[in-house]
Design goal:
The protein is of the alpha+beta class. Among the domains are: about 90 residues, Phosphorylase Kinase, domain 1 (2-Layer Sandwich); about 170 residues, Transferase(Phosphotransferase) domain 1 (Transferase(Phosphotransferase), domain 1, Orthogonal Bundle), CATH 1.10.510; about 140 residues, Rossmann fold (3-Layer(aba) Sandwich), CATH 3.40.50.10070. The protein is about 55% helix and about 10% strand. Helix 32 packs antiparallel against helix 33. The radius of gyration is 29 Å and the shape is globular. The relative contact order is 0.05.
């Protein structure tokens, strides 16, 4: 087979052979990537139903191919060759777990690390109705980058479909199979959890829990005997790890873990304990665990454990958890801002001058002993007419670098660039250094390096070798690729959906011109990732495109801090894999310890994990290096708002307005803070009435909501007239226009118009289900609509599902909990609603005293003495 071509795959080498077939390493000639080809044994697809067996297999293989998760080996293709069937899968270049355990048990931290990742992969598969049915150490692969992936989902069983079996026998490897599988009984996800328990046992002890010389004896042992407790074999094992293993291997499925999420949470909690124990002598004592947990009492214990894990994951890194602009040994750290270089060329060349500014900023940011203001803040001084001293006071910097760029276009060496930088000391407006560079366009990177090097020299900073390499980097030699990259970067920075689509086209042009251009691959990955994260396209196709571009960058520069940052954002934005994201950010911070992007990402992750105070601290540190970032100021304000600290929320929203007085979003959120924090409905309406339609679409829906709180359905309907969108999709939730109109008609007592509106809203929501699968906002929107239509069972089911879907995202959990309260009230479940109100008032989110007093959805229980007692209790 070696050297043969199977379809468009060229066989490179044989990787292994097992009961299911033979696996080869191959090259995909079309996409130029390495894959694993698994040729299935012919008898697996034979049976009395012939072609039907093959069709069932193909259906299950297609389902497996839909799994897009970092801990699942992706299925790319299924095909036929010379009468046989093969699967093309992602190639894992590391050993299998079985190979690793042959030499004995693994370290405890690796047992937990691998177990966590397998549990996460199973959690995703089970969520999609796919059961693996053959989890074993041989089917758990590793990669050279440290990833852990479950392979061989070709035997998966779709929960609502049929089962692929081996001519009347059982599927799976007997030593790992759950008792119910061996007895031929119906099995579900809990069979995979038994198998995971066996794998954990194997990793922890170096042995299988059940062993025998022949299969009948092995089956008898699994069905009738208890394995030796792991601590008898390895006394040093943590007791909680043994408990997890033995619970996963409970012979009765009802006593076993009920879901992969449960075992994941217990492993996360154990990992925290182990990290805290290992670090006790290495760092100052931490507060008791209770102070590290979110203030949400009903977040699952495992989710709370993950919150602590997130903090522990970065606590060991030098420089983390401290203010980035602290006084270092020998004096205060120097800080600089690179102002936007003025474009002296054609107006259409402004992107080139912006790129020059960005490149110099990025190179300087790699210098550990220099604080560099983020470009997000620097770009706001283009131009402002402010003096250097005023800019220095605004940003808290000691030095300003400004300059001009003129690009004289031509062919080849006749295309030239003139750059004139000036370094100015803020304290006395002294020009410390100035130079004019007149160079061929091909030498633009050398000019950037020279400017950054001169800054370091003039400020008398010492460079480490990695910092020197960062200053001298040359990302591409292809000027066509570079120009397309700069244009893509400009589009990416705007962040709107149409801009992101344009950015993708620019970055694709860049990587087509230079396939080794790492920043362009990162820009392409970021564009796809942002389209997914902002809700424009939350399909697996979008995350796969982001991952494919990122993989190209990783293959070219796995240790580049920019690659690590984008990898961290990928895991955070596309999978909410908080601890993996933090691992990547921690590695990036070793070379970029004070990068505001890292500090912001960590702050946002901590917030979604429920570590609100730690999140605010990290975001405020980022703001120190990005003090003109309106969005960052707004997010800090949002955090205080969710914590019901309304005065501080207002201060940060006013700060955002002081940065950009024309920003409508800050003004809107400031008005909303007054409503739910202080009951200032009329003041908010005055703001919202300033310019009808000016705030569309978010402001229009907010105007409608506040008008409903004032019981003015006519004003709500009037505000909605300026809304052109059929549905508004925001981070806080999803609202079809028809639903908002129905709520207004409901308040006005026009019940027939309201009913028609709710029915139309359901149709709109159905159209979103394809691009927003499993989104808690969509679940909640369905639940609320069903509730107002009087469909009790559907409403409660959707509301509970929304809360469950948001259970790992504390930022959305409070919103979904508030939605659940309104659902329960509307369907008449008043006792349950009152219980949830008590919880909601003590957790971050939208359940506030004034929200409860004002929202018409709460009207059915407004006169209930128990409701009044709750308000009175929390008022004091």
């Amino acid at each position: 087979m070696i050297g043969k071509h199977v379809s468009h795959y060229r066989i490179i080498e044989k990787l292994g052979e097992g009961g299911m077939g033979v696996v080869y390493k191959a090259e995909d000639a079309r996409l130029r990537r390495t894959v694993a080809l698994k040729f299935l044994k012919a008898d697996l697809l034979r049976g009395p139903d012939g072609e039907a067996s093959k069709e069932r297999f193909l259906r299950e293989a297609r389902a497996a191919a839909r799994l897009d998760h970092p801990n699942i080996c992706t299925v790319y293709d299924v095909g036929e060759w010379e009468g046989g069937t093969f699967l093309a899968m992602a190639y894992c270049d590391g050993p299998s777990l079985r190979d690793r355990t042959r030499s004995g048990p693994l370290p405890v931290d690796e047992v937990i690390h691998i177990g966590l990742r397998v549990a996460r992969g199973l959690e995703e598969a089970h969520r999609r109705g796919i059961v693996h049915r053959d989890i074993k150490s041989a089917n758990i692969m590793s990669t050279s980058s440290g990833d852990v992936r479950i392979t061989d989902f070709g035997l998966a069983k779709i929960a609502e479909g049929t089962t692929l079996t081996r001519s009347g026998g059982t599927v799976g490897t007997a030593a790992y199979m759950a008792p119910e599988q061996l007895r031929g009984e119906p099995s579900d996800e809990r069979a995979d959890l038994w198998s995971l328990g066996v794998v954990l046992y194997e990793m922890a002890t170096g042995e299988l829990p059940f062993r025998a010389d022949h299969e009948p004896a092995l089956l008898y042992s699994i069905l009738n005997q208890d394995p030796s407790p792991p601590k008898e074999i390895r006394p040093s094992l943590p007791p909680d790890l043994e408990k997890i293993i033995l619970r996963a291997m409970e012979r009765d499925p009802a006593r076993r873990y009920s879901s992969a999420g449960e075992i994941r949470k217990d492993l996360e909690h154990l990992r925290i304990q182990e990290q805290v124990s290992a670090s006790t002598d290495a760092r100052p004592a931490e507060p008791p665990p209770a102070t590290r947990r979110p203030s949400v009492p009903w977040i699952a214990a495992g989710a709370a454990a993950l919150v602590v894990l997130v903090l522990a994951a970065v606590a060991f890194l030098p420089g983390w958890g401290r203010q980035p602009s602290v006084v270092e040994e020998g004096g205060a750290r120097k800080k600089i801002v690179v102002l936007p270089f003025e474009n002296l060329g054609a107006q259409g060349d402004a992107y080139f001058a912006a790129g020059m500014t960005e490149e110099i900023t990025s190179r300087l940011a790699a210098v550990r002993d220099l604080g560099v203001i983020s470009r997000t803040s620097a770009v706001q001084y283009d131009p402002t007419g402010k003096t250097v001293q005023e800019i220095g006071a605004d940003l808290g910097v000691d030095y300003v670098l400004e300059g001009t760029v003129r690009w004289a276009k031509g062919e080849g060496r006749s295309s030239r660039v003139r750059v004139t930088p000036q370094l100015i000391q803020v304290s006395d407006d002294t020009h410390l250094w100035s130079e004019t560079y007149d160079a061929d366009l091909e030498d633009v990177f050398a000019v950037q390096s020279e400017i950054a090097g001169q800054i370091v020299h003039r400020l008398d900073l010492t460079l480490l070798e990695p910092e020197r390499k960062a200053l001298e980097g040359r990302p591409t030699t292809n000027l066509v690729a570079y120009q397309a990259y700069l244009q893509g970067t400009g589009r990416l920075g705007r962040g709107e959906e149409e801009d992101l689509v344009e950015a993708i086209a620019m970055f694709q042009r860049a990587v087509a011109a230079d396939p080794r251009f790492v920043p362009a691959w990162l820009g392409l990955a970021a564009s796809h990732r942002e389209l997914f994260f902002d809700g424009s396209d939350q399909t697996e196709t979008r995350t796969k495109k982001a991952r494919a571009a990122l993989d190209h960058a990783i293959s070219l520069a796995p240790d580049d801090p920019e690659v690590l940052i984008e990898t961290g954002y990928y895991y955070y934005n596309c999978h909410l894999d908080y601890d993996r994201a933090l691992e990547e950010f921690a590695k990036a911070a070793e070379n970029l310890p004070n990068d505001p992007r890292v500090l912001m990402a960590v702050g946002y992750i901590w917030r979604r994990s429920g570590l609100w105070e730690e999140s605010i601290s990290s975001l405020e540190q980022a703001f120190d290096l990005d003090p003109r970032n309106t969005e960052l100021a707004q997010n800090i304000g949002f955090s205080y708002l969710d914590l019901h600290r309304f005065e501080e929320a207002g201060l940060w929203m006013r700060r955002a307005l002081s940065i950009d007085p024309d920003d409508p979003y800050s003004r809107l959120v400031l008005a909303w803070t007054g409503v739910i924090g202080f009951g200032d409905v009329e003041e908010a309406l005055d703001v919202l009435r300033e310019a009808p339609g000016r705030y569309s679409p978010f402001g229009v829906t907010l105007h409608c909501l506040v008008a409903l709180m004032a019981r003015d359905g006519e004003e709500a309907l009037s505000a909605l007239e300026s809304l052109n969108e059929r549905v508004v999709v925001e981070q806080w939730g999803i609202m079809p226009k028809a639903y908002a109109q129905a709520r207004a008609n409901h308040v006005l007592g026009r019940m027939e118009e309201a009913r028609r509106g709710y029915e139309e809203a359901l149709t709109v929501l159905d159209s979103l289900s394809v691009i927003l699968p499993g989104d808690s906002r969509l679940d909640a929107a369905y639940g609320l609509t069903h509730a107002f239509l009087g469909r009790k069972e559907e409403a409660i089911a959707e509301g509970r599902r929304a809360v469950e879907d948001a259970s790992r995202d504390a930022l959305r959990l409070g919103d979904r909990h508030w939605d659940l309260i309104k659902i329960l009230v509307q369907v008449g479940e008043y006792d349950a609603a009152l219980e949830e109100i008590e919880r909601g008032l003590s957790m971050p989110g939208r359940t506030t005293l004034f929200a409860l007093r004002l929202d018409p959805a709460i009207d059915p229980i407004r006169e209930d003495p128990r409701f009044q007692a709750i308000l009175q209790k929390h008022q004091t």
